[in-house]
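P.,

For your records, the input lines for the assembly:
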Amino acid sequence: MRLKLKTLVAAAALALGAGAAHAEITGGVVKIGVLNDQSGLYADLGGQGSVVAAKMAVEDFAAKDKSLKVEVIFADHQNKPDVGTQIASRWFDAEGVDAIVDVPTSSVALAVNDVARAKNKVFIDSGAASSDLTGAKCSPNTVHWTYDTWMLANGTGKAIVKTGGDTWFFITADYAFGAALERDTSAVIVKNGGKVLGDVKVPLNTQDFSSFLLQAQASKAKIIGLANAGGDTINSIKQAAEFGIVKGGQNLAGLLVFLSDIHGIGLDKAQGLILTSTFYWDMNDQTRAWSKRFAALNGGKEPTMVQAGVYAGVLHYLKAVSALKSDADGAKVVAEMKKLPTDDPLFGKGTIRADGRKIHPAYLYEVKKPSESKGPYDYYKLRATIPADEAFRPLSEGGCPLVK
Amino acid sequence: MSELRYERVAFAVMFVAFAVAPLVIYPNFGMQLLCFALFACAFNLLIGFGGLLSFGHAMFFGMGSYLAAHAALVWGLPIEIAILTGAATSAVLGAVTGLIAIRRQGIYFAMITLALAQMVYFFCLRAPFTGGENGINSVPRTHLLGLVDLNQPLAMYYFVFAIFLAGFLLIHRIIHSPFGQVLKAIRENEPRAVSLGYRTERYKLAAFVLSAALAGLAGATKAMVVHNASLTDVYWAMSGEVVLMTLLGGMGTVFGPVVGAVVIISMQLYLAELGSWVTIAQGMIFVFCVLAFRRGIVGEIEAFLRKRSAS
Amino acid sequence: MSTQALFGQLLIGLINGSFYALLSLGLAVIFGLLNIINFAHGAQYMLGAFVAYFLLNKAGLGYWWALVITPFVVGAVGVVIERLMLSRLYKLDHLYGLLLTFGLALVFEGTFSHQFGSAGMPYSIPESLQGVQNLGFMYLPNYRGWVIFASLVICLATWFVIERTKLGSYLRAATENPTLVQAFGINVPRMITLTYGAGVGLAALAGVFAAPIYQVSPQMGSSLIIVVFAVVVIGGMGSIMGSILTGFGLGIIEGLTKYIYPEASSTVIFVIMAIVLMIRPQGLFGQR
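Structure tokens returned:
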């Protein structure tokens, strides 16, 4: 009798508990929304490729764990925060989306970060650079994968100074992002015994860098740091080649450069450029195998680190949802993601910290000479590895309210 | 159908459509529609009734947006005051830029407004208070007059609707006032208006400032709706979009801009799921409108109704 | 400020100025003669760079071929645009021409963005123009020297054709008084079409010049177009020589600004434009 009562009570509790948490694969489907730039400046580093990556993650997860039904949708935020928040709100409220991934362009990412928090869903950012996502604007609903400005500044700055590049001149895009990159990198350079000989602030979207490259040449700094991104970086690199900067003995350090940018510039101009990345398709057998599958689905284009981050992020998200058997409470899922160690063929073993920062090693690469490259996308050679515990900003320095 | 009757009916249709919209569409989306409809109406005041094509109206929309966001987030002002701050800022900016731009007409006027808007954009890009390319985020909504909780979507929706109506009716009042008549006269034939003794410069400047203030009001309200203000709001593509909305809807008509805004914003959102077609579609609509559809949607409807009543 | 560095910056300013002059030439021709604001100018410049890229990668035709072929190819596109679309707008307010070309620019850019992404296509400086010259105060890339030279030649040749030849005088007369000129038996609509095509061809030519040194991407025109408008407006929208001189002049001013106060180098042109429009709305060299 007593046993029976106990089991009855246990069963009731289970049923009640289940009623509260188990029905909680909302709508019966785990819906993931890939929100990024499909048509503008960042279409190449994320774009449709990120959708491909997300779908691959869903497939690979299903191969090992059939407990979840997953759907992937996508939309183009056109680099506009208004459109981004509209889509995010509608997805979360009316279309049953449980997690939004990718989101390049920091202004959109920060806005979506707010929306995800307000609606208690999940946001896994792979595309944006702002280290505020795990700093002042950190959220229990957000995971920042792949990279951020601190990691770029630190990785590139420190590794280059340690390998002899100890005098620097910055060509900086004159807006918050560029200034942050310059400031963070300068701090690292000075801390490691190097010197910053000067800088020049260039308006955004400047086409012609000859004047600034001339100033950089005159400074005689060993390293010219390009604290800019996108078209500005590409123009700087192209024109630096024209002015014979690298031939003259100075090296360029690109603080935010993607594989797709190098592809657009061409090796003859980009050779010798030093950059930091957390993923490269040709790193090891696992990344090569995965990238081969990816390229076949992505029109022959090898993956950028942003697309790799989408894959890994979605994979880990699904693991967390499966472990919790629920996708309803975003903060809980993210907490689970932080509890479970990460392991994927792209970034290896890693963790997600309390502030939402995904921790993995970073790599310093140099762009190959044309003679060293065996074919398209064979662009990088490894110069140094930055271990995971040094690659990202220490937890205590971020100012994340969750951490205090 | 007499003009007055047509206007009343059209207004009633618009009123009812927006009033019941939250039942059918997502309220957040409806609010965005209202904000951009107001923006387009403000723009139309200048081009449709003043005959001045401004290619820099984003500066008013954007600065209104930024100041309202800043007022709410950093100065902690209640939402009504924050919105008014945004509108007032744009009015002042309108006065300053208007003094420079009004002295020329036609193409030159358009080019000056474009140049001024570019300068405002670069200012916003570098000024610390705008947050640069991150924008201003997490803009809070306080209770309206301390009473109504505007974090409830429906409450906020009707608040935005009220603002839109106020702006719309103000524009309507302006158009049908003696001031509006003089403006139309200036648009039709400025030398004649001058010969009649009107200080045309003053009228044009007044129209410019009003248009700027209302555009700022739209921007300020939008910042409250989406909780953020960013560089997209001051970028010249935004100026181009408002021109498109007004052109598509019908320049110089009262309801045209509203229709145009609804179509363009809906398109932006619904095409987003198709990838990169938005720019192309917008361009094609521009081309089509200019070549074959100059009166715009509402313009064509009005012409059709006029022909019917004449026959 | 060392004089060496100053000379270097002035020379660079001159080079950029020659580029602005070349780019604004087409716009000035189109506005000066046809009263059309060609907002699609930036997109047509971009088309020129892409055609050069295709010629190289699909047809194996290098830079020198591209210089000759591209203006005609893109100019032909311009002719089609004029015949099919612009010609319907001449009787209307000039603003419609502006809006149409603005829409066309969006279509071109959107389509190319959709097809080619945004990182751009690689295009190299031709072998014969690679390398640098040591001028003492700076190393001047040969390619840049070529650009100044070619730009001067093309600008002066265009100016000469329009202002000093019979063909040019017909064109100028035709735009002032089309009916009268038509009455003289000159096919005015055809002249107008060809003029638009020529202006577009000039834009495309500037695109070929840009391809080796600037990023060849669908957005390359949109950042430049507003600056070029400013040049034409300051120079005087009807004046070819005005645009040329202003292009060079503004390049130098911008170059100096880049050295003294680089953060303002993007806005200085607009400030000058606003000031010029206030004081002398027809531009520095234009006639009212």
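Two observations worth noting. Chain B is about 75% helix and 0% strand. Chain B touches chain C through 38 residues (CB under 8 Å).

Regards
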